[in-house]
Amino acid sequence: MQDPAAEPEDQTPAPMTPHAAPIVDAEGNLTYIGDDGRRYVVAPPPEQGG
CA 31 → CA 3, 17, 41, distances in Å? Predict the structure, then answer.
């Protein structure tokens, strides 16, 4: 039986509501925890110019 709430593969999933404030993880990514308990990356670290 297929989950009726599942998204078709050709469509983007619905936005996830953050469960906590965004943080910068050990790799420098801006992340947050969703209501589903998964960690989502909002933005990668900016490129360092030199």
Answer: 28, 13, 4
Contact of 21 with 34, CB cutoff 8 Å: no
CA–CA separation, 15 vs 7, rounded Å? 12
- From the list 22, 32, 28, the residue with the least C-alpha distance to 44 is 28
Domain ranges, ordered by start, for the chain: 16-45
Q: Helix (H, G, I), strand (E, B), or coil: what is residue 45?
A: coil
More confident residue, 16 or 30: 30
The answer to whether 17 touches 35, Cβ cutoff 8 Å, is yes
Q: Is the CB of residue 46 less than 8 Å from the CB of residue 29?
A: no
pTM of the model: 0.51
